[in-house]
Structures are given as structure tokens and as C-alpha cells.
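Field log, afternoon session.

UNIT: design team B
ACTIVITY: writing a sequence onto a fixed backbone
BACKBONE:
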């Protein structure tokens, strides 16, 4: 994960926080708790200096499926450090404008969608994932998101369905649809 990307907790990450389901080491669990879906990796590193170098821990959390990069975020290549006189606003991460679909990466969005569904529903999500993979436009993906939103409360508890949908909301916002 790049320093200017925003990590999000996955369903597995939320399970660890709520139930200590995976017995993460204390430092990694504390870091997972601090992932708020708004702070970039660089911002987390600045806030959590006491942890030392957090990027390897974030990489491990990502590899283990506890966090994933926000799909509504456009990672930009890191630029060399600017002189101190440079504007601080130029160092802010670039995020998608909710209605600017020219920068939308359909394949990344489908990958994130697949990741969340597999983490939430396991192998039973295969049919829905095949439908997602078959989408070729943002509108088709939006329709699949709507279908998943309607389906989740039917196959999961209300709380699990809400948690899964919260993870998918950034994707919904990034394609210009208001989250339900």
C-alpha cells in the first residue's frame, strides 16, 4: 500500500476488532483499530510514531486480509519532497470526485467488490462475483451494488449486513450513487 493510499478495514478486520477472532498481536491490533477509512498511510504513520515504522505492519494486515486500500482513492505516484515553501495543500492525497468517472478504475472497483463479498459471504458469493466480473460499465456495476444491498439482509444478520454495506459504501460513493 502506498503512503498516499487510504486503508479500510475489511469484514475480517472488523471481526478481529469486535471479537478478537484472529488473536492478532497487540501492536498490530492497535494499529488495525486506528485504521479509520479517512487517514492515509502517511497520516497514520505521523499519528502513530510510538509504533515506529508502521508500513510493514500495514502491509502484513493487508496481506492477511484485515485491511484493503480504499477503491475510491486514486493512488498517485509519490513525488520527491518539495521545498518547505511549497503549499501544504499540494501534499494532500487525491480522491475521486464522486461524479468524475473519467478517473474511475472499473477493474479495481470490481476487485474490491469481490474482496468484500468473499470476506463476508465466503464461497457462497461465487455466483454474485461472476456477475460482477461480467460487468463492463459503471452503470452495470452500480446495478450489481444495488442488488447486493438488497440481498445482504436476506442472507446475513442485520448487523453483519450493515457492516458489509459500510465497507461497500466508498465504492458506491465513488461511482456517484448516494450510499443507502
Amino acid at each position: 500500500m502506498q503512503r498516499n493510499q487510504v486503508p479500510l478495514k475489511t469484514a475480517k478486520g472488523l471481526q478481529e476488532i469486535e471479537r478478537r477472532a484472529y488473536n492478532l498481536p497487540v501492536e498490530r491490533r492497535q494499529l488495525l483499530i486506528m485504521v479509520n477509512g479517512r487517514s492515509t498511510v502517511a497520516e497514520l504513520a505521523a499519528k502513530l510514531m510510538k509504533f515506529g515504522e508502521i508500513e510493514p505492519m500495514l502491509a502484513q494486515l493487508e496481506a492477511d486480509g484485515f485491511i484493503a486500500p480504499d477503491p475510491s482513492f486514486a493512488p498517485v505516484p509519490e513525488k520527491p519532497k518539495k521545498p518547505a515553501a511549497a503549499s501544504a495543500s499540494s501534499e494532500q492525497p487525491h480522491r475521486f470526485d464522486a461524479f468524475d468517472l473519467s478517473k474511475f478504475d472499473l477493474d479495481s472497483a470490481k476487485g474490491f467488490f469481490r474482496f468484500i463479498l468473499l470476506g463476508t459471504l465466503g464461497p457462497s458469493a461465487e455466483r454474485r462475483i461472476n456477475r460482477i466480473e461480467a460487468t463492463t460499465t459503471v452503470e452495470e456495476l452500480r446495478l450489481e451494488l444495488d442488488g447486493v444491498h438488497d440481498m445482504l439482509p436476506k442472507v446475513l444478520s442485520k448487523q453483519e449486513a450493515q457492516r458489509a454495506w459500510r465497507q461497500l459504501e466508498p465504492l458506491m460513493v465513488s461511482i456517484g450513487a448516494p450510499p443507502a
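LOG NOTE: Residues 7-70 form one domain.
NEXT ACTIVITY: expression trials, pending approval
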